[in-house]
Amino acid sequence: MAIKINLSTPTIDFDFGGVKLTADVSDQALAYMLDLENKDEFKEASKEAERLRNLKDEDITTEEFNVLLQKAIDTYGLVYARMFGEDAFQQVYGQTKSIVATVSAFDQAMQHITDHYTEQQNKKSNEYRKRKKK
After folding, report:
1. How far apart are CA 39 and CA 77, in angstroms?
2. How far, rounded to the nearest angstrom, does the alpha carbon of residue 25 sit from its chain's CA centroid?
3. In terms of pTM, does the model score above 0.70?
4. 3-class secondary structure for 89-132?
């Protein structure tokens, strides 16, 4: 007779102002996000965001701005897709209509995930030390 053990995929649910997303917090997804600053997608997204921040009205046409904005949205979408799913960034952007607010929301979510992961690791470490003392 086999013993059944339920295995669940580690996830955290988020509500981004009515847009409900589930973040994959598996070891692979966390490793990807922890190394995010070294990823080409992140470097590209940061570069595009910086270009948008530094633009002045006289430097760009509305059409050029819209192209840059869409490129930034698409690039950030690639960055967060691994953990939050395809089109997650675009869905939240559709709700906020602000790339700054959307990036801020995802930054907050990432901070929550980091805090959650740290808390879980500390809890496991404390449990291990308690067992070791006995």
Report:
1. 14
2. 10
3. yes
4. HHHHHHHHCCHHHHHHHHHHHHHHHHHHHHHHHHHHHHHHHHHH
Place of tokens 């509500």: 15
- For the purposes of burial, counting CB atoms within 10 Å of the CB of 75, is it exposed (0-12), middle (13-18) or buried (19 or more)? buried
CA distances from 39 to 50, 59, 77 (A): 17, 29, 14
Instruction: Give yes or no for a contact between 99 and 93, defined as CB atoms under 8 angstroms apart.
Output: yes
Tokens coding 33 = 């996000």
> How does pLDDT run across 76-128, given as a tens digit for each residue?
898 899 899 999 999 999 999 998 899 999 999 999 988 888 888 888 777 87
